Amino acid sequence: MESTFADINLSAVAGAIADPARARMLCVLLDGRARTATELAAVADIGASTASSHFQRLREQGLVEMAVQGKHRYYRLANGEVAHALEALLVVAGAERAPFKPNTPSALREARTCYDHMAGTLAVRMHDAMLARRWLEADGRDYALTPLGEAALAQIGVDAAQARQRRRRFACSCLDWSERRSHLGGALGAALLDALLRRGWVSKDLDSRALALTKKGERQFPAFFGNPEADAVAPDSAWRQGRGPAANLPRATA
Description:
The protein is an alpha+beta fold.
């Protein structure tokens, strides 16, 4: 009986993937970034109403999930297992997927403010590093700051206790509109940006939301959020490229 149910479930998932339009949308989402319904419809070369029915089918089969950010609705793969399955099917099919190419101006893409916290490539790197080092843990749709994370962030002047007292979400995932991946939002995200500005690791642009990584920040970011493997790439360049973070508690310098 269990085998029969497995066969039925497998055929339902396979049927959802088999449609060419849905397959194209799933392949685009393989880079881990979210896309709007309009973007995915354009990729699949279908109309908005047709795309809506496709999204419903993919969600019913647990292949994608929807994230609401302001007035926009974004779609992304439901989990890593879906991504692994699609990657395996691409190997069997002998196909390659195209890399994500954002059209955001480079200055804003690198680092910028998002309300009162940091966004952009650098913010996504920090978010991923904090999760990898277990400073943050998923708590439903929010994040919990671990004792290890609180101790680490305190070294650069982040007052987590004060951030918790603010009348807003403490720590949450905020979808980055240029990277289409998550950065850290909420009161903790705001406190982190304030600390980085005070320490002079980043600086604000006078005429836009852009943030600049300072010379001091180029030295301190890799040391604090993760030491890239020593190779031909300079530490700050490796950090910008997202090399893996180390696991030990860092030591921040002034």
